[in-house]
Write a structure and sequence with these properties.
The chain has a two-stranded antiparallel sheet with strand order 1-2. It is built from eleven helices and two strands. It has helices at 24-40, 45-52, 58-67, 69-83, 112-119, 133-157, 162-194, 203-229, 233-268, 271-284, 288-304, and strands at 91-94, 100-102. A hairpin with a 5-residue loop joins β1 (91-94) and β2 (100-102). The chain has a domain at 131-304: Up-down Bundle (Four Helix Bundle (Hemerythrin (Met), subunit A)). The two termini are 15 Å apart. Bound molecules: fe (ii) ion (FE2) (2 copies).
Length: 310
């Protein structure tokens, strides 16, 4: 367990070893294994690439540093062609001229600066005319995934960082829940009901139940994080368990929405219903709300790059 000393008598204790190699083929193989493992779990291209940039993942980071980003993107694209992976959103934001930037551009070789810009969280507070509402929600999923990656990394590091968790709880309550889940619950789900998808006993009920589970886990993290950071062992266990459970819950929740519920919405909603939803999204995200939205997109980047110290 990452939050206790390893038990030498436990056959399930994980052991890790650093493999130093300058053989590019070995690094390519190692990178491929890593990519395949996470793609089979349903991670998208962007999230896998973002993990290569985190120094805590020693092997992938070494491969990223030695092989270069273009080679890693090529390996990711190859594995994505094999395993498919989740449906990627089509929009990452807007360029300097206000044009929508397609996600596919991430696959092109880029300079380090350009790539860092592309790998920052998508800006999703104002929406292109004619874009599908589900594309906007999927862009928000990509932002949320950055925070999930950061929370997972805190557990891997075996630390309870109350400052980090305070910001993560703020993000989840105000962006993941306050902005994103509110759009789903107040705008998307009612439109789906109108289109004949029943609220009870189907995917909508399942999604609503998981939103509640997520709120309960975040409450547990919030209530225990200060005591845990101060060294209270039972509180540490509660926090680690709740963070792991929350990350696992949201990962599979997002996967279900991206690949099942949103695909269903795209099929059953006509262009008029989709335009009406976009209009409602824009009404929610304007003025101070838009500024707040952009603040939380930036916060997701800050958390993704958070340095944990033991
Ligand atoms: Fe949801
Ligand atoms: Fe969602």
């Amino acid at each position: 367990m990452p939050y206790n000393e390893p038990d030498a008598t436990d056959p399930m204790t994980l052991h890790g070893a650093v493999v130093e190699t300058d053989d590019a083929n070995v690094q390519r193989e190692m990178a491929t294994c890593f990519i395949e493992e996470y793609m089979r779990m349903g991670y998208g291209r962007d999230r896998v690439l973002s993990m290569f940039k985190i120094q805590d993942y020693i092997g992938p980071y070494m491969a990223y540093r030695e092989l270069g980003e273009a080679a890693i993107i090529e390996l990711i694209d190859h594995q994505a062609a094999i395993w498919g992976g989740r449906r990627e959103s089509g929009v990452t934001g807007r360029d300097a001229d206000g044009n929508v930037t397609p996600r596919a551009e991430i696959s092109k070789p880029q300079t380090e600066m350009e790539t860092d810009k592309a790998m920052s969280s998508p800006s999703c507070g104002h929406y292109a005319e004619g874009g599908a509402p589900t594309t906007i929600l999927m862009d928000e999923h990509r932002v949320i995934e950055h925070v999930l990656t950061a929370m997972e990394r805190m557990v891997v590091n075996g630390v309870v960082d109350a400052v980090f968790l305070g910001k993560a709880v703020d993000f989840v309550r105000n962006f993941a829940d306050g902005c994103h889940h509110a759009k789903e619950e107040d705008i998307l789900f009612p439109v789906l009901e109108e289109a004949g998808i029943p609220r009870e006993g189907g995917p909508i009920a399942c999604m609503l139940d998981e939103h509640i589970q997520g709120r309960n886990l975040i409450a547990a993290i919030s209530e225990n994080m200060k005591s845990a950071a101060a060294g209270d062992e039972p509180a540490r266990v509660v926090v680690f368990k709740a963070v792991r459970a929350y990350v696992g819950l949201l990962e599979q929740h997002i996967e279900k929405e991206d690949s099942i519920l949103f695909a269903m919405a795209d099929r059953v909603l006509d262009t008029g219903q989709q335009a009406s939803m976009l209009e409602k999204f824009n009404q929610v995200e304007h003025g101070e709300n838009l500024k707040r939205h952009e603040h939380y997109v930036a916060l997701a980047d800050e958390l993704l790059n958070w340095k944990f110290t033991r």
